[in-house]
Write a structure and sequence with these properties.
The protein has 206 residues and is an all-alpha fold. It is 61% helix and 0% strand. The protein has ten helices and no strands.
Length: 206
């Protein structure tokens, strides 16, 4: 991702923390309840070094690959492999497995959105947005997708008005949810720093 994509909201220090909270896998492996994985805007040369995540559990990977090989119709095993590689930040591997899962179940909105996030982390913001658009065709009110769409528009495309529109939609749909609160903080920071570009009145829940 271009270095300039991280400069818009330098005055809104909480924005980076919001981004870190938002982008992440929608699910935990094996169907456990998940909190979005910690993540950051797509890497740049100036990004602060952070310890790499642990590698995926190789035994679990081999087990799931065997399941996938035995059953060409098993979308769940492929999606879980995607999750394991996503959590290890091996996004190219995650993409391969998420795409395989979606080829079998195109209506899995969580896999679709995780695939979009993986595209973003491999510097493919346009593919990320296209994938999010597919997610919203499946579920027009999927708030994590809409929240992530705003992030990719802001950081990946420098489309501040588009980011504001996405976050306003999240606030309208779920104002009291964690996603709604994150969207409100992001929108407030965006409007504070760039009112001319996005307008200062897009506060549908005040």
């Amino acid at each position: 991702m271009k270095r300039e994509a991280l400069v818009f909201l330098v005055s809104g220090t909480c924005f980076g923390l919001i981004i870190g909270w938002v982008l992440g896998s929608q699910r935990a492996p094996d169907g456990q309840a998940a909190v979005p994985a910690a993540a950051q805007p797509a890497p740049t040369e100036s990004a602060t070094a952070v310890p790499p995540p642990p590698p995926p559990d190789q035994a679990r990977v081999e087990e799931l690959m065997a399941v996938a090989e035995r059953d060409p119709s098993d979308a769940a095993a492929r999606a879980t492999l995607g999750d394991l590689f996503f959590d290890a930040e091996r996004f190219q591997d995650a993409i391969a497995w998420y795409e395989a899962a979606l080829a079998l179940d195109a209506q899995d909105v969580n896999v679709s959105t995780d695939l979009g996030v993986s595209y973003y982390y491999t510097n493919q913001p346009d593919r990320a947005l296209d994938q999010f658009a597919h997610s919203l065709e499946v579920d027009p009110e999927h708030i994590k997708t809409t929240l992530n769409m705003g992030i990719v528009r802001a950081f990946g495309k420098q489309d501040l008005a588009g980011a504001a529109d996405a976050w306003e939609q999240v606030i309208r749909l779920a104002p009291d949810s964690p996603e709604g609160r994150a969207a409100r903080q992001a929108l407030d920071s965006l409007q504070s720093a760039h009112a001319a570009e996005v307008g200062a009145t897009g506060a549908p829940n005040e």
